[in-house]
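Hi there, hope your week has been kind to you so far. Thanks so much in advance, here it is.
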Amino acid sequence: QVQLVESGGGLVQPGGSLRLSCVASGSIFSRYAMGWYRQAPGKQRELVAGISSGGMTRVPEVVKDRFTISRNNANNTVYLQMNSLKPEDTAVYYCVADPLAVGVRPRYWGQGTQVTVSS
C-alpha cells in the first residue's frame, strides 16, 4: 500500500506559479513511477506529468514548457512546478503512483488538491 498526500494548491492569478508537493508513505518510494493528473469540472481526468522510478519524465504537449515534474527519493516527495498558469489549468490535481507506469490506471491516488487560476 502507498499513501499519497498532496499540498500546495490554491488560488493564483493568470501568469503566476505554483508548486505542488506529494509525500508518499507505506512502501519503497524510489521503486514507483509517480505522476500528476488533473480533472476540471465536466472534463475527464488527464495526465499532466509523469516520472519513472529512474527519473525519466513525460509531460504532454498541452502543458509542455510550463509544467515540470521532479522527485526527491530521500524525502519520498514528488513535485509539480507549474509556471505561466492559465485559467484553463484550473482543476483538482491528483498525485498518483504505480509500480510500473502512471500512464494508464495508476494504482494509487492521493485525495487531490484544488488549483484555481483566476484574476
